[in-house]
Design goal:
Layout (H helix, E strand, L loop, with lengths): L2 H12 L3 E5 L8 H10 L4 E4 L13 H13 L3 E6 L15 H21 L4 E4 L2 H4 L7 H22 L2 E4 L13 H8 L5 E6 L10 H7 L4 E6 L14 H10 L5 E4 L8 H20 L1
Helix pairs in contact: 4-6, 8-9, 9-10
Length: about 290
Amino acid sequence: MTRRWLLAAAMARREEFRWAICSETFPGKTFAEICAAARRTGYTGIEIEPSNLSPDPAALTATERQSIRKTMADHGLAFVGFHSFLKAPAGLHLTTNDDVVRERTWKYFASLIDLAADLGERPLLVLGSSKQRQALAGVTPVLAASRLQEGLARMAPLAAKRDVTILVEPLAPYLCNVVNTIEEALRVTGGHRHVKTLLDTHNTAGEALPVADLIRKHRANIRHVHLNEMDGRYPGSGSFDFAAVLNTLREIHYRGWVSVEVFDFQPDGETVAAKSKSHLDALIRRMKK
């Protein structure tokens, strides 16, 4: 462990929440530059889209994995885990009627469990991947959800062995036709200890409950939080009630990571990261008054 990593860890312990940001916030940068920008804008954790590391992330060698791990530590960042992790290589799909593609995808999923474990301690695998899980022609959403559940049951022992937690992400109905609420996510987890869910603020579009009630109801199974406006912009650029989210997380003594995950990087990633953190810090200050 480097001195910078230890200082960042100490800072994270002093803060009420552990703040992370997603790697694709900084398009066009090398991974080292991404880490530098994340740390410079006030984050202590990095959540990685694996395609930012390689066109075929699972093929990374042991030496390359160690180098990535060292880069994060050198910049004082903890590895939070992966999201959008089936984007690369192309051609993967979890619920298709094509048995060969489906089996290849679940095998690749298993290899990413190992990759995540090689990069950090107790990492998360956020299973969003709308295009790789949605019900395609000839597959109903019910059948697709069933195939997700079957596949996750196969992945759970592998995740447990490597101390990785898979998180089934509910996606807004306009993004995907499979698993749109936390209730639906929990149905496909199978109750496995290493398969849980998360809260993503812009994906609450399909929920009936207000966000605070949603957090309270599912507090035992929410192991991660993504913050973004309902249109995918950065926190503070719209009207989402992030104060309600943070106050309720404080109320339930949430101790997981809170990641900023945005989909609009204008005017540039570093400005987006800094403005997000500034807005969230201001909300925390008001909570403490």
